[in-house]
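ok trying this again, last paste got cut off
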Amino acid sequence: MSETAATPAVETLSLTTPSGDLELLACILPGIQKAPMLCLHGAFCSAEDYRNFLTFFASHGYPTYSLSLRGHGKSWQMSWMTRTLLTSLDNYVEDIMAAASFIKQRHPDAPPIVLVGHSFGGGLMQYLLGQQSQSNSSPIKFGGLVLLAAAPLSGGGKEIMANWERVEAPDGYKYPWSPRSQLDTPEQVRTAFFQPETPEGTITRWLTDCKTASEGIRTGLSVFWPFGTASDVLKSLVGIEGQSTQSRKVLLISGSNDRLVTASMVEENAKAYHAAVERLPGKSETSHSSEVVTTISIPGSAHHLMMDIAWEDCALRIVDWIEG
């Protein structure tokens, strides 16, 4: 797994913001100036979901950070009303930008940050970049975007909710008020996020270390509206220059056995990006959209690409994409 003899240690940082302190996990090899990576979890998750990736990427020379959004993990906790009704996507964007600013200050001479977003976190990353393009005022430019089984640009709410129901209540919910997104038992977590052969210890670790108990209604409903457009996301990325390929901007990854954000959903999202590449101003006649936007599927992985049994394959494919 590692390019070094010893596995680098994961450091837990507390990032102070005007709203409250945010949990930021960091894993860094001294003296390395490759592009930093900022990872963002999905719904009901936290920074801990990326622990495998943190040490893997750092061992390959990439300073890697994983953020817990407000109300998640060990970040500051808001009241029930604030979480449920008042917290917005823009509040989450504030958290991401606070982490990005901190990383930029820590690595002033490094290449632009690469963003990594899983599930709802991937949707949120697309929202952030779309907003950046619209305002054209961000002090931080990002290099590339890795979308891990991410909510699509369209939001994908209807399809994702239907998939959730098929996973946890194939015969339908008993009552209209029956709880949704049930992740309380190992069996429920395995069914939604992992595979039958995923080790029990992985499931236990997610329940013990990674799980965030509840999500807000307002942010949850955001998946029923578009996060942004592919053109705006692409305009906000400066691209990653590789050794043998042209500038790359977006990597979309699906799990072959994902039942929540299916491979077909990821492919549909990729089509929007490929179409947008063809419309980019100044696009070279010799360049191809597949160089700017790449889509891959990880065999033998369910929704939780960062912890499922094929996580190392997924992490290696990300490194290969960045390095070109």
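PB: full thing came through this time. The mean pLDDT is 92.
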